[in-house]
Structures are given as structure tokens and as C-alpha cells.
Amino acid sequence: MTTARLPLFPLNSVLFPGLVLPLNVFEQRYRALMRDLSALPEEEPRRFGVVAIRDGSEVAPTAPGLPEGARPEPGPASGFGPDPLKAFHTVGCVAEAATIRERAGGTYEVLATGTTRFRLLSVDASGPYLTGEVEDIEEEQGEGAGALASGVVRAFRAYQKRLAGATERTLAGQTDLPGEPSVLSYLVAAAAMLDVPAKQQLLETPDTATRLARELKMLRAETAVIGKLPSLPATDLIRQPTNPN
């Protein structure tokens, strides 16, 4: 398997292929990353790797009480312990930045899209930001992905309706769900109200059919649970929040 070196952007969330990722970049290590990506030739993709944090802090710890100028500058691995590889889930998603907009003060607004999965093999903290040696994970369809996709579409619609009722909201006009099984599997994984470990498990699933089968089981279970709850906080299933770093 061919490996490559990729800048890393750890988050307390899971990015899936095909999903949009807005970022509010203010830490020095990630500002340096965005400066380097912005300096690439226009025809070269501005790629970085998003990994979910297993054990650590998305934002580097600070030293409260010290004057601004006396605070220690966090290093590339700050918040992730002596061995950053152990702090991250080792299956992540390549993100390609469509826009990198520098704001006054040197912070950045970034809009990126997930493209492909990768496996993180090692982490290098010797530069201004973390980089990792990664290998691509090919998406296999698996057996029966098409039939499972039809079941997931029906289950997801039922889940949406039950969730809308529990949040006392009116379900807006439904958008068409993608027919391609792998695209559908990632959209559902991102849209469902699941915690990070559950979403990470779906990202790591070896093939599309297995992921859809797990989602079908999960959607049916969640729909049944929601039906027994009096109300839930309102949420938007599809819209992803901006990630501060």
C-alpha cells in the first residue's frame, strides 16, 4: 500500500467523505498550516487530514493568569500527550480546502470537503503543525449494498419524521437522498444524532454494505427510542457546525 505525508487537523468530531467542513482557525499551529496551504500553486489541491480525537483537547491548553506576552506558545502536539498517535483515532478523512480566507488579526475562515478515508500510521511533531504518514483506504461496495441502500432511505425518512415530532418542529420539504450507496452511507452517518465513537465506528466500517447494514439497525433502534421520549432539543440533521480549533 502506498503511503503519503499529510498535515493533520485533529477535531472532536468525525469528518466523512462528501461532507462539508467549516473551520474557524485561530491557533498558531493551524494558522501556519493554512498559510502553507494558501501558498501552494493554484492547481495543487490544498489537502489535510482530519482525525477524531480519542484522548486529548481540540484547543491547546493555555496558562491563565499570565500576561498575554508571557503565555507559553503551544507546540504542534500541545494537548495530545507525549505520543499523539495514541491520542487520535487512526482512521480519518482527507479534507480538501475549497476556500481559505484570512481575516484581520491573522485568523482564518476555511471551508473544506471530505474526500477519501485514510489510516494514520505515524505522527510527526517536529514541524510547526502535526503531520502524519497515512495510507488510503479504498471504498469497497460489499455484497447487497444496493438493496440495503433502499432500506436505509426508508428508515432514515422515518427517523427524520420521528425526530421532527420529538423536537416539535415541522419537517421541511425533504431533499432527495443520493442513490449511490457509499455516498448515502456517509450522509446518513454524518446526519444521525450519534456520539463521536459511534460515528467513528461507521467511518471505520470496511465496506459500504456493512456500513449500511449497521445504519439500518441503528436507525430503527433510534426511531423506536425517540418515539418513547416526550421531547428532544431541536437540531438540524444535515447542517454541520463550525469547528473552532
Brief overview:
This protein is α+β, with helices and mostly antiparallel strands and 245 residues long. It has helices spanning 28-38, 84-87, 145-166, 181-191, 196-204, 208-227, and strands spanning 3-11, 20-25, 47-52, 91-102, 108-124, 131-137, 243-244.
Describe this structure in words.
- With 245 residues, the chain is an alpha+beta fold.
- It is built from 6 helices and 7 strands; from the N terminus they run E-E-H-E-H-E-E-E-H-H-H-H-E.
- A 5-stranded mixed β-barrel has the order 1-3-4-5-6.
- The model is unreliable at 62-72 and 232-239 (pLDDT under 50).
- Bulk shape: globular
| N-to-C CA distance | 31 Å
| Helix share bin | 25-40%
Radius of gyration: 19 Å
Give a quick account of the main beta sheet: strands, pairing sense, barrel closure: 5 strands, mixed, barrel
Mean pLDDT: 86
Order of helices and strands: EEHEHEEEHHHHE
Helix count equals: 6
Key terms:
245 residues, alpha+beta, 5-stranded mixed beta barrel, 6 helices, 31% helix, globular
What is the element layout, followed by pairings?
Blueprint: E1 3-11, E2 20-25, H1 28-38, E3 47-52, H2 84-87, E4 91-102, E5 108-124, E6 131-137, H3 145-166, H4 181-191, H5 196-204, H6 208-227, E7 243-244
Parallel strand pairs: 1-3, 2-7
Antiparallel strand pairs: 1-6, 2-5, 3-4, 4-5, 5-6
Helix pairs in contact: 3-4, 3-6, 4-6
